[in-house]
Structure formats: C-alpha cells, structure tokens
Design brief:
- The protein is of the alpha+beta class.
- It folds into three domains: about 80 residues, Hypothetical protein, domain 2 (Endonuclease III, domain 1, Orthogonal Bundle), CATH 1.10.340; about 70 residues, Endonuclease Iii, domain 2 (Orthogonal Bundle), CATH 1.10.1670; about 100 residues, Nucleoside Triphosphate Pyrophosphohydrolase.
- The chain has eleven helices and eight strands.
- Helix 3 crosses helix 4 and helix 7 crosses helix 9.
- The chain is globular, with a radius of gyration of 23 Å.
- The two termini are about 35 Å apart.
- Bound molecules: iron/sulfur cluster (SF4).
- Iron/sulfur cluster binds next to helix 7.
Length: about 280
Amino acid sequence: MLQQTQVATVKQRFYEPFLQQFPSLSKLAAAKEQEVMKAWEGLGYYRRARYLHKAAKQIGSDKLPDTLEALLALPGIGRNTAHAILAFGFEKPYPVMEANLKRVLCRYYGLVEPSETELWQKADQLLDKQYPFEYNQAMMDIGAMVCTVNSPSCLVCPLNQACVGKLDPAAYKVKKTSKKPPTKNRIIIVKQNSQHQIYLKQRDGEFLGGLWGFEQFEVADIDTLVYLGDVKQTYSHFALKAKVYKQYHEDAKKGYYSYQQASAMPLSKLDQKILSLVEKH
Ligand code: SF4
C-alpha cells in the first residue's frame, strides 16, 4: 500500500478501512474479488490486491505461515516480502532488502554496482541474528534518514566506524536498471446508450486485471465521436496520454451502467478521471 503514497494518507484512507472491511485472512478469503479491488481502488499496483486475495484463499486459515518456503509458495510474495514478514512479524533472523537499504550496504561494504546475489550475501553477513526486528528497522531508518542519496550524515552514522564508503559515498551505487517508460498515445471511447448508461468492461490479465474501465484503442474513426477531453496517467512501466471520446450506441444494453453504478465499481485512477469527464458532458 505504501508504494506510491505517504504513510499518513495510506493509513487513514486505505489501510484502516481495508482492515475494518477484511479484519482477518478468512474474511478476506471469503470476500468477492470485486469487493477487494474496490477497497484497493486508487492505490495502483492492482495485481497486489488480487495476489493478497488469492494468498488468503490459498492459506485457508487465519494463521499466516512462518517459514520462508511456505511464504514463497504464496502468490505475490517474493524473497524481500517473505523476509520482511519473518523478521517483523515473527522476529526470525532474515534481512530485509529495500532500495534505501541496498544503498547503505553498497556504501558500507564499498560495493560498486553489485549483483542481487552479492547484496543478499552481504545483507545476511551483517544481520544481527539475535535482534532481527530491531536490526532491520534500524537499517531502514539509517537508509531513509542518515545515509541519504545526496547528503549522507556520516559523522553521526552508527555504521561510521567500519564503513568503507564514508570517504566518498557517491562512488558506491546500486545498478540502475530502470529506463524512462515509453508513452502510449490512445483514444478512449465512452459508449453511451439511450438511457444515458455507459459501457464498462472488466479487464483481465496482469495489467489492471479485475478492475472495470472504458475501452482504449490505438486508432479509431474520429468522425463518429464526440470529444470529451484529455487524460494522462503514469504507470510503473509506461506513461499514458489519451484523448477521450463519446460514441452513441442507441439500443445497446449489455455492459452499460448508470453513472451512479459506475461510480460504485472498482475503477483505476485513469478510468475515474474519464468518469469525471463523462459527468461534465
Ligand atoms: S558512514 Fe556514511 S556512507 Fe557509511 S553508511 Fe553511514 S552515512 Fe552511509
């Protein structure tokens, strides 16, 4: 939940309402996918909500597994998440590895663009096996507040004594793999019938799967369309710019919903923006 948003916003708007609605794994497992997606609406990374739901079903009880193997067998849980659950949830000796912590490890050990394997080896080596909770929390705090990207505070850093990188922290970096995501130009069609109902389709597949939304096309016959406005949305792997059009389909019924019904359905941020355009016209 914290991937894109501040802690205070997430806590009040998403985390607490989510736990109120699904207070246990069995309650989450028993929920319909659409209810889970609606509770997640606005957070992005919708695949996580689907995995969370699938994982709750797969666990089949209210007890989260407490071994690495059992956690890794659940959908959506990779090595870092499994380690975080074990260290923070069960106080077991596993190191956590997030972006800030990678930077601290690179500087502390003097590593220039190390491989993931090397980073995990160093993380295991440095871990305080007696106090994994406190150790991981302290390392994350150091990464966020002391060993910062541009102005590390080496003089007050508790790792200062043995840190290899303290003389030139900028020289030790994690390999950057991310390129600027491409932009896709699309036309989005809002179909409407004679009862002013609008057409929505539930998406499947990995990207925004489970959410409902308006249809998107790379090209279209512009002459039959009414222009509603422009929308933009940035995703992790591409940025989208789209022109939104309305097209009348007089007697169509299947897949059409009233504005009120559409507002109550789990929509992505982009589709919420389009729905606001529809409301204005
Ligand atoms: S001593 Fe400086 S470079 Fe080393 S971990 Fe601390 S803040 Fe980072």
